[in-house]
């Protein structure tokens, strides 16, 4: 029902060189994708890495990385003569070892196995687990995976390398880097020792003959290396049955790319109906509001607008200090919160989805002149007495209307019912009250009000009461011409109309128009 209207007049290269034969294997300088940072595991710097500790973690850059070694069977990681073994890391050969080895002249991670007797056919599995997904900008370099000569079945060293990202398989390709390598010893992610043709079949420790590159494509959280050893040649033996020495391999320094930590800022721009500066359950979002994100230097990083529900977001932001500024939705709105808020993104608090802004429609004495209207049923009389069981003295919030909250806040009381639940009877008298509140610094000129009398009721003569403006009210009988109010009432005058005006109303003025109807 239309109950009121008005008119207003207003590239570098990394070189890995064999110490013995000047063989050069060139890799491109490590380059990380945009949004990630390069970090290097330098075994020379890992002084806290403990020899023979099969489960320990170190940091590569900002990423905690766990190294876990598993034996099958127990005791296979051992060295019969550690004093004669490359790196000399002790009876349990797992840990950082001194160079040279595999043609590099720097420390490396070494582990060895003794596959004799009951341990034949066993293996040692190194599992490297990263606390977050990383990428490898250059291949892993495995050292001294040596010997697989004709007539020496089945092999001396063999590694199987697998990788995964949070349980999902990631492809791995091995490439043999040794001199005079037998191509068929590398098959996908499995590599057997090269054919160095150096009796009795081991590549010299200062040579890169037995080195293998492992190229891993895609993000990974875990890399697993299974190391096995086969029978070895021994001087004077006619068969290759028992190893004449313990077997060892190594892992050189490697690089990782760490995705830069990111966060997000956002939440809600809301219509603060009661103006308390807090998002309450019945506060609705304001759509199309512009927000500006600035970094700590005050530079604009991004802008966005709220969606139809008043929600906004700035995603994928590098960690750091930011400010968010909200623009006023329109002249009719007044901020009930700060319009510029700080939002600091840290590793422990990277998502700030609590940056809310509130606005209240209208504010007395500011903005453009306008008028707010709220209609209520303020009494029902039966036989001259107010109908019992209906509260006409307290404010009832109409969740579909914002104006009632604004009038209630400014006036302190706005009594009346939105709807009447008990069934009314013929002869009952219903009192309607139309509250109004003008806003802005200027007064309103030539204001006209119109409220059509509801169907099933009849207007009671001489019951119009006006407060807050000059009384220029009248009642148009059903079907009577509405004169200057035709365009304001917005409907045919089938049941009569209560009108007021034209009248002038000062800015910041509260008042009401009240009248009675009879239930037919």
Count of individual domains: 3
Number of helices: 2
Overall structural class, as computed from helix and strand content, comes to mainly beta
Name the average pLDDT: 83
How many strands appear in the DSSP assignment? Answer: 36
Distance between the termini: 18 Å
**Largest sheet entry:** 10 strands, antiparallel
Strand content: 35-45%
Using the CA coordinates, give the radius of gyration: 42 Å
Poorly predicted ranges: 1-26, 196-200, 239-245, 363-367
The portion of residues assigned to helices is: under 10%
Gross geometry: rod-shaped
Short account of what is shown:
This protein is mostly beta strands.
Q: How does this structure look, described?
A:
The chain is mostly beta strands and 520 residues long. The chain has 2 helices and 36 strands. Strand 20 and strand 21 form a beta hairpin. The protein is rod-shaped, with a radius of gyration of 42 Å.
Outline the fold blueprint.
Layout: E1 13-17, E2 24-28, E3 36-41, E4 55-60, E5 63-72, E6 94-97, E7 108-113, E8 123-135, E9 140-143, E10 157-165, E11 168-170, E12 172-176, E13 186-187, E14 190-192, E15 212-216, E16 220-229, E17 247-251, E18 254-259, E19 262-271, E20 290-294, E21 300-305, E22 311-318, E23 320-326, E24 333-335, E25 340-345, E26 351-352, E27 357-361, E28 370-382, E29 385-386, H1 403-411, E30 429-439, E31 444-452, E32 457-459, E33 465-467, E34 473-476, H2 486-489, E35 497-505, E36 510-519
